[in-house]
Amino acid sequence: MLVTSILEADLAVLSLSVQSWYRHYKAKPDDRTSEVICSAAVDLFNRGHRTQEELTGMLIARFPGVPVAHVNAPTSVAVH
To answer: Which of 14, 31, 34, 40 lies closest to 22, judged by CA?
Structure first.
């Protein structure tokens, strides 16, 4: 994976996208789920998806709820 400098604004977009995913599912954040969702958000961001709306929508579509995120935890870099 290519490591690039992430601006504070980019971090805000990633953070807000993950927070929106949690709000959408009315789920309480936990470390295991956050690891999966944050990894997926960074991967999507690195693939060129740069807006909060786009990232949030893709996270919601790919991780339909907390139990699915837990199932994917061992392979968190794999986004189905």
So the answer is: 34
* 3-class DSSP state of 3: coil
What does 28-64 look like in DSSP terms, one character per residue? ---HHHHHHHHHHHHHHHHTT--SHHHHHHHHHHH--
Domain membership flag for residue 62: yes
CB atoms within 10 A of CB 29: 12
In a domain, 13, yes or no: no
pLDDT digits (tens), the chain, 80 positions: 554 567 999 999 999 999 999 999 999 999 999 999 999 999 999 999 999 999 999 999 999 988 655 555 444 455 54
Comparing CA positions, the residue from 57, 56, 63, 60 lying closest to residue 78 is 63
When divided into structural domains, the chain yields a total of: 1
Structural domain boundaries enclosing 34 = 27-75
